[in-house]
């Protein structure tokens, strides 16, 4: 299915209305500082988006439900129960009765409406109000095809998140992952994709070949991954819109652990031959392959920094698997992890300030972060098996998979996706159909 990502247009930023707030004492603007540790969720009222016709009203209810769900899952907002609302949904041309919203302790208010245009497109408009200051914080309107209503809801969520936190949102994104089914001994692993809230789920591969480690391109339209097609491990490119698959290179050994560089022009990968594994870069335009490491140890899991100047990778050249950073040309290799245990799967934050990793120590697995120089290590999770971190595009949330142990007969274990804030709070399961592993979070949709 080709998604109409390019057909959502911001109509306009709607100006501040109802300037009668002059009679209200000056108050600090409602704001959430997400740089701190635990943040008390902000009470917010998300009303049903109004519509004149029954279909418009139904779509308005659906949009407000998606916005409310996005904000609630972030852990930074606490959408209030609509049954507590004193003022019901009304025209955007009517000034909110702020005193009614203060009674139920709403600090922010979201209103909107939906209207079908003569050409069949939707016009979706919303406004975000600061209830105590009685001022409009933002207001936007969008034109789109009706089938894109859910994406408009995510874009509205991102606008609210950014206006109140000052940080970019991450709701208009997708997740590609490995959907697992069947008994442990005969596990079927298929590529699957869904919106970040679990909607629009679909399989990308048919399960005839084992697949692992999918990763998005910066354009979000391609995926690189490892497939065991014909029992031969090779790295592939997958075009999401066309479904076209292409093997990357003709190597006489195993290629694995692929990841796009920050500009999308190259793929970093590991290549194993004769028992040795090294890190390589392939230029996608010329298909030229450049060797970046040269060491008898296992070098794998490369991840480029956002500025393209450095590459983090995993190596056991020091005796145990540890994290290393090198220049983009393979020079100046520096070990950055020195704690107790084994480190793996380094992933550079989109902000460039941190590297996420998997750590195994004292019989437990952890998802953690550290600065690129190895300082400031923090462990965010602990379980029987946590692995494969991936960053939200704003660099504030991580997703990973968690496996629970099976019994002596190999029954009962599960593999699920979870997200957690960079602060270590707001651990949440990402609900999927069946088991799921190896998540990769897309950049914001274009």
Architecture overview:
The longest helix has 20 residues, at about 55-75. α1 packs across α3. The protein has three helices and 30 strands. The two termini are about 15 Å apart. A six-stranded mixed beta sheet has the order 1-6-5-4-2-3, covered by helices on one side. Strands 9-8-7-30 form a four-stranded antiparallel beta sheet, with no helix packed on it. With about 450 residues, the chain is mainly β.
Rg over CA atoms: 24 Å
Unreliable stretches: 1-7, 15-26
Q: Count of DSSP helices?
A: 3
> For the terminal residues, how far apart are their CA atoms?
17 Å
Average the pLDDT over all residues and give the rounded result: 91
Categorize the overall geometry: globular
Q: What is the beta-strand fraction?
A: 35-45%
Give helix % range: under 10%
Structural class: mainly beta
Largest sheet: 6 strands, mixed
Strand order of the largest sheet: 1-6-5-4-2-3
> How many β-strand runs?
30
Secondary-structure topology with pairs:
Elements: E1 9-13, E2 42-46, H1 54-73, E3 77-79, H2 98-103, E4 108-116, E5 122-130, E6 135-144, H3 149-165, E7 174-181, E8 188-195, E9 202-203, E10 211-216, E11 222-227, E12 234-239, E13 245-247, E14 254-260, E15 266-273, E16 276-283, E17 289-291, E18 299-304, E19 310-315, E20 322-327, E21 334-335, E22 342-348, E23 355-361, E24 364-370, E25 378-379, E26 385-391, E27 397-403, E28 415-421, E29 428-430, E30 435-441
Parallel strand pairs: 2-3, 2-4
Antiparallel strand pairs: 1-6, 4-5, 5-6, 7-8, 7-30, 8-9, 10-11, 11-12, 12-13, 14-15, 15-16, 16-17, 18-19, 19-20, 20-21, 22-23, 23-24, 24-25, 26-27, 27-28, 28-29
Helix pairs in contact: 1-3
């Amino acid at each position: 299915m080709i998604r109409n990502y390019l057909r959502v247009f911001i109509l306009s930023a709607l100006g501040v209305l109802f300037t009668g707030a002059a009679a209200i004492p000056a108050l600090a603007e409602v704001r959430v500082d997400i740089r701190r540790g635990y943040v008390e969720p902000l009470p917010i009222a998300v009303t049903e988006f109004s519509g004149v016709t029954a279909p418009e009203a139904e779509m308005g209810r659906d949009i407000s439900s998606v916005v409310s769900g996005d904000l609630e899952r972030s852990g930074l907002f606490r959408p209030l129960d609509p049954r507590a609302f004193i003022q019901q949904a009304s025209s955007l041309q009517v000034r909110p009765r702020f005193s009614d919203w203060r009674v139920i302790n709403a600090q922010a208010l979201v209103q909107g409406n939906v209207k079908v245009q003569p050409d069949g497109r939707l016009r979706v408009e919303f406004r975000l109000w600061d209830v105590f200051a009685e001022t409009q914080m933002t207001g936007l309107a969008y034109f789109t095809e009706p089938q894109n209503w859910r994406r408009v809801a995510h874009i509205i969520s991102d606008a609210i998140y950014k206006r109140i936190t000052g940080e970019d949102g991450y709701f208009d994104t997708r997740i590609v992952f490995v959907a697992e089914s069947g008994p442990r001994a005969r596990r079927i692993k298929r590529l699957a994709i869904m919106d970040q809230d679990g909607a629009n789920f679909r399989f990308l591969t048919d399960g005839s070949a084992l697949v692992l480690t999918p990763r998005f391109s910066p354009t979000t339209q391609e995926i690189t991954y490892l497939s065991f097609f014909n029992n031969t491990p090779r790295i592939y490119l997958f075009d999401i819109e066309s479904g076209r698959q292409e093997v990357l290179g003709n190597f006489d050994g195993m290629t694995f652990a692929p990841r796009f560089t920050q500009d999308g022009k190259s793929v970093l990968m590991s290549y194993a031959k004769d028992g040795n594994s090294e890190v390589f870069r392939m230029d996608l335009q010329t298909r030229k392959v450049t060797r970046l490491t040269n060491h008898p140890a296992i070098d794998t899991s490369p991840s480029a920094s956002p500025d393209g100047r450095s590459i983090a990778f995993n190596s056991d050249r020091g005796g145990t698997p540890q994290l290393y950073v090198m220049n983009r040309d393979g020079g100046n290799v520096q070990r950055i992890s020195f704690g107790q245990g084994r480190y793996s799967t380094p992933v550079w934050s989109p902000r460039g300030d941190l590297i996420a990793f998997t750590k195994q120590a004292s019989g437990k697995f952890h998802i953690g972060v550290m600065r690129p120089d190895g300082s400031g290590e923090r462990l965010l999770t602990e379980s029987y098996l946590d692995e494969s971190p991936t960053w939200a595009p704003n660099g504030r949330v991580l997703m990973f998979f968690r496996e629970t142990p099976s019994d002596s007969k190999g029954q009962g274990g599960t593999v699920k996706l979870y997200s957690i804030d960079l602060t270590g709070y707001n651990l949440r399961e990402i609900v999927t159909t069946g088991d799921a592993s190896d998540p990769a979070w897309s950049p914001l949709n274009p």
